Amino acid sequence: MELICARPPVSSYNFMRYLCASLVKKSKVIIDLDSITPCIYKFKQSNEQLKFMFEDIEFRTGIDNIVSNDISEGINNLQTFGIVGKLNPKYEKLVIYLSTEEADEILTECSQEVKDAMMQLALRF
pTM for the complete prediction? Predict the structure, then answer.
């Protein structure tokens, strides 16, 4: 029985932090902003055993798009704290401003299962 008041194992904010750290570890620091949500959604769909990581992330799918307010909010929070930035003029690209050491520090916060999953997800970008 799931508790309704329980905190999700991975919050949407931490999910995005772990993803950014994993991307830095894979030397991918400039990402197409429009590809983030669809890529995460496809990863979720193909990894049923990792559904616990997505409890705090809601996706809405349309005919030709996939959106998530939780992912967008996570990116905005990361931007507020200076972890990521968006390139001008159209803000199409997301730039990750983490060093390898900072990425390592962030990834020590999560379990090995989450870390391995994030590394697999980072390879899809």
Answer: 0.90
